[in-house]
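Chapter summary example.
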Amino acid sequence: MRERRMTICLNSAAKICLGVLFLILGGLIYLLFRSKTLYIYIWSESLGFADLIDSLRLFVHDWIVPDFIIFSLPDGLYCAAYLLIIEAIWHEEKGWIKNLTLSVVPLVTISSEILQFFGIVRGTFDIIDLLCYMVPFLAYTMILFTNNYKYNFLKTKL
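The structure predicted for these 158 residues follows.
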């Protein structure tokens, strides 16, 4: 009898597409609402997108966008994108190397934000940034544990 896994999951292609969408959305927020001195603007300018981006910036110039969306949401989107894409790439793996690889970026960003609070790392501590780094990592961890629990529960019932 073939085992069926009842899990909360997306296939690898969907994870990569969602990850890329998160990267694009985070990048657009940066390009449209943040300073033109950021590297992403300089890179897009060198690719020939300056006029398009300037037109889009002019279009959204009068929009009232909360600081959370401009300054913190992209961080969470990038973290979620990393988790989704790495999970899609390593979807067949089950070992500690996969978990370490998945954890690197979220743990570095979370640690960096905490170290900013103590003045050990240069930057300005922001609790909202910290939450934006933590939410995708915690959501991924909860989904992972839920899937493992359901899998093990169903495995014992078969």
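To summarize the output: Residues 10 and 123 are 36 Å apart (CA to CA).
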